[in-house]
Structure formats: C-alpha cells, structure tokens
Amino acid sequence: MGEFKVHRIRFFDYMPSAIRAMAFSTRTERLALARADGALEIFNFSDNYFQEKVLPGHDGRAVEALCWVGPRLFSAGLNGEITEYDLENLRPRYTVDAYGGPIWTIGVNSQGTLLAVGCEDGTVKMFEVLKERIQFQRNLDRQRGRIISLSWHPSGTLIAAGMMDMIRIFDAETGRATHRLVVDRGAGASKSKEVVVWSIAFLSDYTIISSDSAGKVQIWDGLNGTLIRTHLITKWDVLALSVSQDESSLVAGTSEGTVVQFQFLSSTVDRLDKDWVRTRTFKNHSHDVRALAHTETAVVSGGMDTQLVVRPLLDKVEKNTRESAIRKVSFPHRSLVCCAKKAGVLLFQFPDHLELWRLGESDGYGKPGGSLPVKRGPEKLIQLKRKGEDHICCSALSPCGGWLAYSTVTSFRLYRLLNGSISICKVSKLPKDLRPAHQLCFSTDSSKLFASSSNSSVVVVALNEPECKYLGTLKAKYGCRQPVHLLSASDNGKWLATANTDCEVHVYNLDKLKLHCTVPVYGSCPTAMAIHPTTSNLVVVHADQQIFEYSLVKKEYTEWSRRLQKQGLHSLWLERDTPITHVTFNPKNPAHIIVQDLFMFCIIDKSLPLPEAKNVLYNQMTLRSLPEPDRVLHSHGFKICKDFQHLLCVSLLEDHSLVVVERPLLDIVSQLPAPVRQKKFAT
Amino acid sequence: MVEHGDIRVVRRGGSKINFRQPVITNDSRLLLCASGHSVKVFSTSTEECVHELRGHTDLVTGVVVKPSNHLQAYSCSLDGTIRLWDFTDGILIKTYDIGYSIYSIHTSAFHKGVVFTVTSTISDKKSESFQLVAVHLPQSGDQLVKAPELSAVISDVSSNPGAIVFGRGGEYIASANGLHLEVFFFKKQKTYRFFLKKDTKTGGKNTFMCVAAHPKDDCIATGHEDGKIRLWRNFNHQKEYTYSTLHWHSNAVSSMCFTPEGTNLLSGGVESVLVQWRYNDVSQRDFLPRLGAAITHIAVSPDGALSCTSHSDNKITIIQGIKVSAVLQGLVTGESVETDLMVDPRSKALVLNGKPGHLQFYSLKRDKLLYNLDIVQQEYIHQLGLQQFKVVKVAFDASGNWMATVEERKQKDAEQELNLKLWAFDEQTQSFVLNTTVADPHESRITAMCFCQAAASQTTMLISASEDGHFKAWQLRRLAPGEDDGPSCLCDFVGAYRGLVPYCCCFSADGSLLAVSFQEVVTVWSPASWELLATLSQPPKAIRNLCFGRLSCSKYLLGTTDDHLLCCWNLLTCSLEWSTSMDISLLLGDPLTENIAAFCCHAGSTDLFVFKPSEPRPVFSLKAVCSGKVTHAVFAPREEMLESCEESSQWLNHSQLYFLTQCMDLMTFTTKAEEEKLMASSKQLLIDDSVAMTPFYLLLGKHRKGESGAAASGESAGRPPLPPLPQGSGAVKELLRTPAHVLPSTSFLCSMFVKSLLVSVGDASEESKPAEEEMKSEKEEEDSEGDMESSASRPERGSLARRSAEPAAPPLTKAQLRELRRVKKLDHSWLTGLLRS
Predict the structure, then answer these.
(1) Pick from A38, A48, A45: nearest CA to A17
(2) What's the pTM?
C-alpha cells in the first residue's frame, strides 16, 4: 500500500445549516431540501440518494416551504415571496411577491393547476400555475391570525388550513370557510399560550390530520368537522407531518427529535373498519425535526441537527439489502476543499467566505502510526469574504497557489495571490464570456481556467499576468442542458473531462478545443473522476459505487475495467452509503488509484487480484493482524484505510505527503444549540 | 434397614404461592393459586384459605378455570396428570392421566374439550426444550381417565407460562421464546414468526419475557428484558407487521395482563410498581408503587373488578381499582436463611428471616403468617451493593418468654457492627418487646447462641459464642414490677479455651451442663460454678454440630466433624461410646423425644437417618430425601399427638420434622395415616358462601351459629331434620331455598317469617316439637296452596310439567323434596278434577 506522511487536518470548521423544509416528488423520485441559509439541495432517490444539485443560498431568502409542481420547484419564505427555481442553471428563475406578509406554507392541488399559499395576514392566496410563470388568482376568506399550514384535499375542492388555535376548512371554488375546528390548548401553564397548528394533512377519505405545538397529533372528520382521536406524542411541539402516497401510514416529527409513525390498521384480522394506530418511534435526531417526507419505502427526516436521515421502513423493503440500511447525509456530496498540490496550500469553501491555509511542516521521522513533531504549525493566510448577498457556489485554487477563483449565482471573481499567497489582488479585467459558473477548475500548470456555465458548456480562459484571455468555449453536442458538476483536467494539459447530472461524461481535446469523445453513458451519476497523468485513462466513480476506467487514447474501456465489471465489485464495497468524492493517483506507482469517501480512503492496486465476492473484504487493520500465509491469501486490490473518519478531502501533494481533512461529527454537534430539555431516566 | 414405605416427603405449609399466576374466579370472590403439591383457594375479601385442593403428587404447575364451566378448574402438575376440581366445594371431579410432566396449562373458550399443555420434548431430555401440545380430554364418566390424544401445536416454546397466550377468543395463540415471537392461527392453520435482534446499538436487550394478548383487537403485547413493551399489530402478515414501543420499566418486564375489556394493560417487574397503561392512549399511565417486592405475575378477574399481583417474597396482593385491598402472605424464604429455622415455644410458629431486617412468625398448622417482628428497626433502603443490618441469629428460651437476636452489618473498610438484642414477651400485646440492646457484645462475629432450656426459676441464661475466641454467658432476669431500673441483663462469665474459636454450644436438657466446641475440642462446663468439667476431643477436624441426647439418652453428647465423622460420647465415662463415618450436614435433636435426626449428604443428594443414641440401629432412614445439601431443619412439636403404632413412623408422633431444601422449599415428612386423615377432613368440609351479604344473610348467619356442625351432619346422614333447632328457622330456611315462583303469597310468608324471629320460651319437648311444627307448617302450606290455586288456576301447567322433569337434578334439599311431594299431590288432584269434568 505504501507509506505516507499524513497531514491530518481538523481545522476546517465547516458547519452545515439546519434543514428547514423538504418536498418529495414521487414522479421524478427527487427530494428537494431547503436549509436555513436559503440553500436548496436536490437528492436523487433513485440513484443512491445522491446529492445531484445544490442551489446556493441567499442572505434575504428564508425558505419556509417547498413544493413540486410536476418537475418545477417552488418555494415560499418569510420574505413574502414565491420563488420558482431554474434547476438547469441552479438559480432562481423569478420571484413573485404575494403581498400578504411572510408566507408560512405553500401547497399545490393534485391537478397541478393552482398553488395556494398561507400568509401571515390570515389569507390563503391562490395562484394559477402557467407555463412560464404563476399568476395571482384570488384570495380565500380572510381569517384572523396567520395561516401556518395548509393542505389540499386530493379532489381539489377543499383546503384545510392550520392556524392559531384552530383549523379552517375552505371551499376552494367559492373561497368560503365551511368548518372551523377548534384545537385544544396544552394543559397546565401552557393553557394561556396559543396553540399553533404546525402541520396538517387532508386525506382522500375526508380525514384531516393535524399536529400542533401542544404535542398532539389529532385526527378529525373533515366532513362533519368533529374530532375523532387525539394522540399525545410529546410534551413539546409536533412540527411536521407527512402521509404516504397510499394513505396507510403517516409520520410526525417532534421537537424531541423523534419521528412517530401512525398506521391505518384494522383492529382485527377480518374486519374492514380501520383506525389510525400509533406504531413505531424513530429516534435519529437530537434536535427538532423540522421537515419530513414519507416515500414509498422510507421515512426521510431532517431538522435542526443538519442531518438528512433516510430511515427505510423494513416492512416495505427487502431485508439486509442496500435499501434496508439507514442512511444519514451529513456532508455535501462534493468537495469543499481544494488543495494546491505544488504549493501546499488549502482552500476551504464556506457559504459566505473562503479560507486559505498553509500546511504545517515537520522534519522528523517517526514510526508508522505515530505522530511527528511539528516544526511549523498550519497557518491561516487569507480569509476572503464574498461580496453581495448570494452565497458562494464554487471555488478553485490553482495548483501553483497563485490563482484563486470563486463564483456565486450572479458574479464571478478571480484573484491573484502573490508573495507566497499572502497578498491578494483582484483581477479586474475578465473576459465577457466568463459568466457565473457552476464548477471551476485550473489546469495543472496553472495556465488555464475552466469554468462550466449553462448548457454543459465550459469556458476556457488563459491566465496571464496583466490580462486574462478568453480562449474559447467547449460545447457538448446539442441538447445537453444539465449543469456540469465535475471538471477534471489531465496533468499533461491535453484533456479535459466534464460530467453533468444527466450522467454524461465528455472529454475535450484542449489543443483543438473540441470534443474528443463521449464516454458511454452509465445509468448512475458520476460522483468523482480523474485522468491518469501517464496513461491518460479516465477513472470515473458513480453514485452506485461502480468504478470505470476509460482509455482516452483508444476510446474504449480498459482491460482492467472490463475485468472489474465482469467479476463485479464486492458486496461490502457496493453497500457503502456515502459516494466517492475524490479520485487521485499515486505518481510513484501508476497502478495505484486513490479514492475517498466520508468514512474511508482506499488505494486500488490494479496489479493485485480483485476481491472475490464470496470472500470477506478485509481492511488493512485486520489484514495486518492475520498471520503471514493468511495475509497473502486474503490480500486483494482494494486497500481500505478507515483510520480517518468523516473525511472531506484526501489529496496527495507533490512531496508524497497525504493531506487528510477531517470534520468530526462531534464538533458539529457541539456547535448546535441546546436541544429541548427531556427527562431522562435516572437523572 | 427399617421399612418406610408409608413415609413421604411432601410440601405442607409454607410453600410458594407465587410460583404460577393466580386465577381469580368469575365472581371475583375466590382466588386459586398453585402452592406446592396442592392448589389453594383463597377468599379475596377475607384473605382466608377456603380450601386446599390436594391430590397431586408433585409440584402443581398451573391452574386455569374451565372455560365451559366457571365453577370448575383444571390444574396440572409435574406428576403428569390434569385434575378437574370443583373449587367451591373442594372436590376432585376427574383425573386425566397424560403421562408426561406438564409445565403449564392453557385453555380457551374457542376450543371445547381441549386443553393446551407444555411438555418437554420427548426426543431428547438433555437439551431442555419444550413444546405446546393440545390434549383432547375424553368424555367419560370415570374418575381416572387416560388421555391418549396429544397433538403438537408449537414446538420450541418457553416453559414460562407467561410466554404463551391465547388471543381474541382463542382464534390464535402467541408464544414467545428467546428472541422470536410465534403466532399460530387456528382457523387458517398458519404460523407467523417474528424475530428480533439480540441487542440493539443503544444497548437494548430484546429477549422476550412475557406476552399478553388484547381480548378484542388483534394486538399482542410483549415484555422484554430491557423493560420495553412492544405492541404488535398486523401480525397476520409476515412482512407488514408493525409494532410500537412503550418504555417505562428500567428492568425486565416480568408479567403483563390486559384487562378483560381491553382498555388497560397492566405490567410489572422488579421495580415492584404496577403500571397501568391506557390501551388507547399509551402516554397516560397510572402507577401503584411500593408493592414491597418484585412483581412476578399479574392476573385480572374476568369481570375486571379485581387484579392481583404475585411478588417474589411469596406474596399475592389483591388490588381493587388501583388500590391494594388484600394481601396474602406466604412464608418468605429468601436467598438464605441465616437465622436457621426456629420454633417459637409459645405460638408453635416457625421463626426465620422474613422481610429484610424482620423476623417472621409463621404458623405451620394454619399455613399463615402470624406477624412480622421488626428486629433491626431501621429503614431498609433498596439499593444494590448497600450493606445493611441483617438478622443472623435468633434463639428462644424454653418457655418462650425470652428471645435473643443478633444482627450484624459488615461494611467495606469498616469494623463489623454487632448488636445483641433481648426481647421479652409482653402478655398484654401478645408479642415480643425489646428489652435490652447490647451493642458489640463480642469483638467478632457470633457463631452460635443458645438459651439454657431448663425450666429455670428467676433467671435465664444465654450463651453466645464468637469468633473472637470467647463465649459469654448472659444472665437475664425479668424485672419485678416494683424495681424500675437496674440491668436486666448481665454478663455472667466469659470463657475461653486455649485461644481457639468456639463454633457450637449446647445445653443439656436439664441445664446442668454446657458443651462448647472449640474447633476440634469439645469442652463441657458446669453453668452453676463455671468450672471446666471435661474436654473431649476427636482430632483432627473441627466439630461441625453438637447435640445433647435427651430423656433416657441424656448421658450422651453427639457431635459431627468436618472429616465426616459422627461421634457419640458418654458423659458419665467421658469417653467415646461409638463413632461412625458419614458426611452429616445437620444434626438435630427432637426436643420431645430422644430421637436425633441426621441429614447426611451423599452423592449430591441428602439422606435422612433418625436414631436414638443408645441404640445401634436407626429408627428410620430414608435415602435421597432431596437433591443438594440440607442445612436448615427443625422439629416442630405437634399440637395433638399422632397415634401411630408402626415402628417406622413412631418418631413422627410427637413432632414433625421440617427442612429447607437447597432451592429454599420447605418440606416435611408425612405418614400415610396422616394423609388419609387430612384427605377425609377436607372432603367433609362444606362451606356455604353462596348467600350474599343482605339482612337475610345476617339473620341466617345468626341461626347457623346455633346449628353449626349439627346441621351439616344431620343433612349428610339424612335424618329427619334438626332436633336442636330454634323454632321457625326451618321455615326461614325453606323460604330461602324454595324457588320464588313456587312460593306461597307474601302475606302468608310474612307472618310465618315474623313468627320465626320470636324467641321461643321453652324448648321442653325437643324431640316432639319440631316434628309437630313441620306437620303444622305443611298443613298450612297446603291451605295456602289451595288458596293460590283458586286464584291462579290453570295456566300453571307448563311450569308444573317443567318441574316434574326437574327431579333428575341431584342435590335436593329437604324443603324441595317436601315441595315436590306436595306438588305431586296437587298435580294428581288437579288431574282428577280435569278428568271428572
């Protein structure tokens, strides 16, 4: 496997933002997730829960509710605006002010023609969904108090709206309120406090389910306006509700961090009348569960503790498969760290600033596994604040450490770093074609900058001291609209590979600035890729953990890749639940590929045999403890190292030392606000 | 060896009543529980034992009420039989012989003529696995029936009866064992199995402990080792089953029960708190805390009015609503009985450790706890690892006026705390009152303590021997009423011998000699002068037990040593009379006869020898009395002597020998004659409790006091009724026994009834009067009946016909017979009248 000097870095204090809202589209199997800083993330549930797209946040935008209308995504927030997003260019398409104060909730009817929003001033406003935009239609009867939550009846004729202390049922056609359901306040001291109906669901059998700040989940008869059952599930608030598509199951998220499932069951085997019964309790969060989605096979929850948890319902999936494992997404599925290999400088990307660090140095020699004395500690060189209200969407540092570029939704900035990266100056004269980018990449010799822009095109800019020159735009074939999320340039400066969320991988010849070839499209999204410096083979890792090696010269899969596909990867490798986010190569040994995900990094030795499917996949730690003959027997091409956890970046510097950036989850937990107080047994 | 075919080891008195789940009868008046070899029937209101259903020859392992007749109950036992009882009268109706040891029994109303029993799997006996079998009980009139039809229902079940339950009218049966739950639907003949992981990541232990099924809904509640309760639903799907979890208990849930309406779920565990969960709103709970000891079983009466919990300290608590209404306390035999078994000479009660820090006085004859005496008089704190005062020694003097107790506490890194307490019997309160406390009577643990058993005059002597190498003699003296102060307890003498540690001490029967064993040396002292009279030694091992012979054998001193030697010294010659080699764990002298009982540990089981020191042959011997070592036994004097002439059972005439087995079961020896006597007496007993508490009952009760036994014997013998009855009571009885629809008019009855309440002036002609009275009443009734007929004429025919069919029913009271006779007469006249017209 080889021995490395490791820079173990734990000073990247990246802090994800709390999850605020969620919407799941069963048609496209995509989950839209809104964070407290206004950022939106799109997860593709059919492709291993891969985080496909990230729309950077905006200072003034606090998304309170999300809603899919077909493939279109709408959000509403406390700034009183409804926003539709352009998912191809990863930016808001337009915003419409509802003129009703802060908007708490948004809902679309099952036909997808009308959008209803609940406003602070007590109105439910209806917007007509047109092809290109939305248009205000009318107000429903105005009520006292704000509208916190609303839900359409599947027929589209009725709307139930949760308010303070009550639930209103509106006739969607006439706009008149037909029922007023009074919700009980909490017992004791909270009697004087208004109860907030945080979430509401209107089922097709005219049952209304509400959850409120008194800790109740209540089941109402929506036709007669009567209360059927009350389930007290917590002492605190029940913040979110979600009903499964077939309306047989329902989940409620509480401030205690629990998710409580209710099921629509018949009391005895042969009877038909059914009842909502509280069944399971999931406790995967330490803080408020603010957003919930009930997919066909799983409960998806997120909240204040910033983690997205996908908890499969074991009665709906095959046991002991990849689907039955619980998944927690705590970090973005893309790299926030950029490492200048030659200069030994790290760039950390935060939503509102960039940090530049120089690595520490050591001249000692130590035993494997031990720690070396530090001669010079790591040093923070620059903290660069972004300009404007838009958050940083991508950034890059040139390998020589002399150039720094970042982009937001609206602007692109390039900086020149001088004097060993200590002084910085903005490059003001930029070519006009260099528009805000989705992804940035420098060439290995730091002479070119590649910036992906709309329609999968890549702008190539030559970097020169006084002025940057636009060299050309690399365009894929016509019809590619999805944004490029991966860029990789070869070391010899000849090739550039791009990958977009349509799973297409294009390779361009940089000498001719033309498309060289397109790698055969594989059904899963690429999560990381790199071009081998010597053999010019492109290694692509996909969201379903498959690894391909494609020869750019021969324009075909390499022998090793074919062998790998023929034999198949080990099941333990395939069952890992975080995608590979980085691929590099070992310049000393061309047969080595270094890949990294959140929990391990692995050196794939192409010269060694592949692990047999039936054998146990030993990692290096256990292999070392085995006796010598066994070790040879069990050794295989996948050398996995789990010494470092919560890895955000593994990179090999020019001096063959390894940079490992860790972000322990405990550090994140310790920065969260205190959770609600709970009585624990024996405390 | 002596023949001993008719002497058996039985459990009699003091056996566990918390072994299996108790059963409350349909009317909530009686409670049935398995207790040793018998089933006990308790009254839920008075806490008295109403009947003891005897008949099984081994441990009873289950009791259930027969679903088709709520006045009968099945019981099963390890002896391989199921017995059907009429528990209100205490009569054995039928015995079904299964042939295999039965570990529990389950019934449901859905299955007629079938009971479900748990037996061990026949194939291999080494790996203890059990199966649930359905037993078809054959319909036959015989007393003893063989039930050959067995069919296995579920294999691999738990032997714990709480882990098997019938659900919703017997449509399915759920059984939990280890980590899996199995549900068998009878209609579809289909089994569903659900497995849990052994441990969860958060440290939960998922082993199933008990199961309960909702009576109306398809919902199974399971209790788990980590205190969780899971409510399973939708379990007719192998995959889409679901459960919700309730968690209050901090330790394993040992028992659960749904109320008959299914509105509440009761659960209990080590916390000794009964938790009541609302089925519809599980967040609401009610608690009944401080029940005293860990809950082992919970049962609810069929009408839901009562529930009861069994506890690990051999107690059943009957709970009405959420309040304790009655407590049935059995003999508490905890992990160890440090005080040894003792008999209180005054109340003849068995005395031993009870609740922590208490002594219990348990009447073996009535099989009832008399009272608990708080010895330590300190709050007991339930906490693991906390060392508290324990009562370790107790002794009574011959008259029962004095009791001495020793309590000790050994704390880590601290000196031993010892207290010697002397208790005097107070005639007024009829209990022991603390007289003197001697703090630190010795410097080290007290190894033995005994009173001088001679009928002393003024003072009583107590000897205490300790590990510090001394024994002390204490003079006790009851204060005369005049003198207030002055010590009532004085240390009279401190003895030692060569710095050796004394282990046993023993007074001779007349109190003239005291034997104290110092390791391998026995010293004999004169208590009058405190002179060392003699030393007897039998090297090389230490003396384990010491015992003086009594009556004709009082010149002998017996001792056992650690190297398996039984020695008998003659005190007149101060020489070893005889010795024999056996591993005796306990040597015990009968205080009333010269017999000595020796429990001898041999090859894992214990043998009993009863012998007289003067005779070479044992009076009685019994091999393999029980498995394990017997270390506690006592001779309890009988209240009335047995008249047994057989040589082998004569030693049981004066007193009864009780002993504790290794698993803390109290056992005794019984002779065949004694057993027969008991059986006979139990069959004669008839208690009529069927009358409700009304003014009529009070009237009747008053009458019955007068008649008492005579009535019973009179009825059973079938003689003409009751010479010593007060006038009129016959009429009242008749009035109450006759069905309402055949009674004469109320106006007539009233005068008769009032007349019956008057006190008769003279009972001069006892023989003639009742007969006369009866004649009269009969005549009167005839008259009245005539009246009735004139008014109520024809339409009576139907009822008459019905009644004439009735006589097939067996128990006819006198009054009914008379009625019948009259009806026949009437019927006839009426018929003739009809013919004539």
Answers:
(1) A38
(2) 0.74
